[in-house]
């Protein structure tokens, strides 16, 4: 799954770079303000989910499983892509204005941070999507080819996420 995450982050990065270079994405002050507002809302929502899960809500606000988890993961990838466009603009402006060499490392650090965020969010989407697969698909992956039916046993503890499968 890590390799899929790397390829996913690479695909997002290449797509944003192509869109930026062909000027499909125009980074303006309004765009930067919109991205900052979206990032603030996204981080506040993640913090609220963390607080809910810390005080016994288990799954937080539902952002870690199912359709809502996939939606939040995709939103995180889109937000990371928007930050990547902002990073490209920062690098382009620095080169155009002849920034000194000492200013290269903060730009590189920002770009690296954005790429790591995109990679993390792609992994999150893949993980949530993988855990949302129907029981039959996961059962047939674990059963021998001669087993025709799979049976679901109740988990020993209610807090466990995975279901125990028994093949017949």
Report on this structure:
The protein has two domains: 2-132, no CATH class; 135-168, no CATH class. The protein contains five helices and two strands, in the order αααααββ. The chain has helices spanning 2-21, 29-57, 66-96, 104-131, 135-142; strands at residues 150-153, 164-167. Helix 1 packs across helix 3 (66-96) and helix 2 (29-57) packs antiparallel against helix 3 (66-96).
Secondary structure layout:
Blueprint: H1 2-21, H2 29-57, H3 66-96, H4 104-131, H5 135-142, E1 150-153, E2 164-167
Antiparallel strand pairs: 1-2
Backbone CA Rg: 21 Å
Strand order of the largest sheet: 1-2
Separation, N- and C-terminal Cα atoms:
29 Å
| Low-confidence regions | 154-164
Number of helices: 5
Shape: globular
Number of strands: 2
Structural category is: mainly alpha
How confident overall, as mean pLDDT?
Answer: 80
Share of residues in helices: 55-70%
Q: From N to C, what is the helix and strand string?
A: HHHHHEE
For the sheet with most strands, the description reads:
2 strands, antiparallel
Q: What number of domains? A: 2
Q: What percentage of the residues does DSSP assign to strands (E)?
A: under 5%
What are the salient characteristics of this protein?
168 residues; mainly alpha; 2 domains; two-stranded antiparallel ribbon; 5 helices; 2 strands; 5% strand
Could you give a quick summary of the protein structure above?
This protein has 168 residues and is mainly α. The chain is 69% helix and 5% strand. The protein is built from 5 helices and 2 strands, in the order αααααββ.
């Amino acid at each position: 799954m890590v390799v899929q995450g790397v390829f996913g982050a690479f695909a997002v990065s290449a797509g944003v770079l192509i869109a930026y270079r062909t000027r499909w994405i125009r980074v303006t002050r309004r765009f930067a303000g919109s991205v900052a507002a979206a990032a603030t809302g996204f981080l506040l929502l993640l913090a609220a989910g963390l607080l809910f899960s810390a005080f016994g809500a288990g799954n937080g606000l539902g952002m870690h499983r199912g359709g809502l988890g996939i939606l939040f993961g995709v939103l995180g990838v889109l937000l990371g892509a928007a930050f990547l466009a902002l990073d490209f603009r920062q690098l382009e402006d620095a080169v155009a204005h002849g920034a000194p060499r000492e200013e290269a490392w903060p730009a590189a650090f920002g770009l690296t941070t954005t790429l790591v965020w995109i990679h993390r969010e792609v992994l999150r989407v893949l993980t949530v999507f993988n855990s949302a697969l129907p029981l039959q698909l996961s059962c047939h992956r674990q059963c021998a080819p001669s087993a025709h039916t799979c049976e679901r046993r109740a988990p020993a503890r209610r807090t466990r996420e995975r279901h125990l499968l028994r093949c017949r």
